[in-house]
Fold:
Amino acid sequence: MSILEVRDLDVRHGLLQAVRGVSLSLEAGETLALVGANGAGKSTLLRAIAGASPAPAGGAIVFDGEDVTRRRAHERVRGGIALVPEGRLLFPNLTVEENLLVAARPGPWNVAKVVEAFPMLAERRRHRAATLSGGERQATAIGRALMSNPRLLLLDEVSLGLAPVAVDDVYRSLKTVIESGTTVLLVEQDLTRALETAQRVVCMLEGRIVLEGAAGDLTREQITEAYFGLHHDNGGVART
Amino acid sequence: MTWVNAVVQGVLLGGLYALFACGLSLLFGVMRIINLAHGDLAVLGAFLIWQISTSFGLSPFVALIPALVVMLALGYVLQKTMLTRSLRGGPLIPLLATFGLSIVIQNGLLQVFSADVRSLGGQAGPIAHASWTITDQLSIPVLGVVVLATAVAVLGGLQLVLRRTGIGREMRATAQDADTAGLVGVPSSSVYARATAIAIATATLAGMFLALRSTFSAASGPTQLIFAFEAVVIGGLGSLWGTLGGGIVLGVAQTVGAQFDPQWSILAGHLVFLLILATPRGRSLDLGGVRA
Structure:
């Protein structure tokens, strides 16, 4: 059964329509990678699912059988949706531990388990978030989202701005999270990472889904062509 | 010794200013609004305590308890209704809304209680006038010490809440980034409502001490707002312990100024405030939100 269903979603930034009639669904325990060029509407779609502004102009977001389209962000977190936003957006004057605790909700994830999943945070628990490196910030941001014990984890541009070593560390820890059974919707520009991590890949272009398929069935060439609007219907399900 | 006495009285007066200022500082730190009705809400609290105290023959310290409950609830409702709506309109709208609220409170109090001045000193018993005489020229009023101790306890308590509790973490997170706080499950409207309730409760406490140590009327609010604002700015916006320091600096400036000429008392406080504003620290005031 689908844990998330997005139906004909439209999202506008003022006059610009960033997401155009997007429909997708996500099974419980599945990891789906959303790829596409800058401005394709991936982050906007993720933020719309999380309840961040702007609110959808049309369509519906159904989570666990319940229409959450008009629910506010904090209500969706309580319902089980957590977003790791692009740019991390930590609370800079709070310590790592405080950043984690501020999001805490009952469930298996707690500070100790987050530190176990992201060992790089062990030494930094009492440090202010403003003093962290890029990788540590990303780990804290993912840990903070996990502290709400979500059933759906939305990850926006995990590798953006990180050194390759830090990306390796974060993805190694992320693998543990995915293996624990959390449903993940991942926005990622690094195709190799996306194909390695996700079971299914959806490619967006100019606010629309133009290609989707199982990660194992799609080639880098197919996805790259879809990135630039040159896709051919020779593998995944192409949409226009 | 006269000068020592002036400084001691100033430090004790600073406790009252710090109490007035801490609610203003908290609201600014968490919500980025300057509540222009803060002084009037304190005076409203003082009238409420006066009314309960005279109607039931209670000590003002006992009457404070039901008054605090009423004012806490008023703060919560005020945030959930008026302030939440005005915050959506940008930074100027809350300023105008609280200015309007200030006028409504002043005129409401005038209508109900007239323009007569009142005091709670008579109902409070000997504590209002008792003092420890150290020398002929130096005496320490008991009430002044109680006010300063209360200010330290309130500011210390708030500091503890902000640093050690979940509510405090939520307030600090919301103060830093309300939108992101929402994305991690913290509803900013509830955090704001709690902050407003606490701010108005501390204003009520300050209002009671003002009424115990001097007189008050429906028109007393704006003056207290100015002193509170000066204490907040001198101490650093959003800093709770800084607010205590700011209150004490303002209080000492006023009492030392009065030593030169009684008419210089208030003026000296304003001059110190302006001097601090003119310093590099004053010109680069930290707007970084509530700190703990």
Notes: Chain A touches chain B at residues 50-53, 72-74, 77-78, 82-83, 85, 89, 91-94, 98-99, 101-105, 144-145, 148 (CB under 8 Å). The two ends of chain A are 26 Å apart (CA to CA). Chain A has one domain: 28-47+72-238. The first helix of chain A runs from residue 42 to 50.
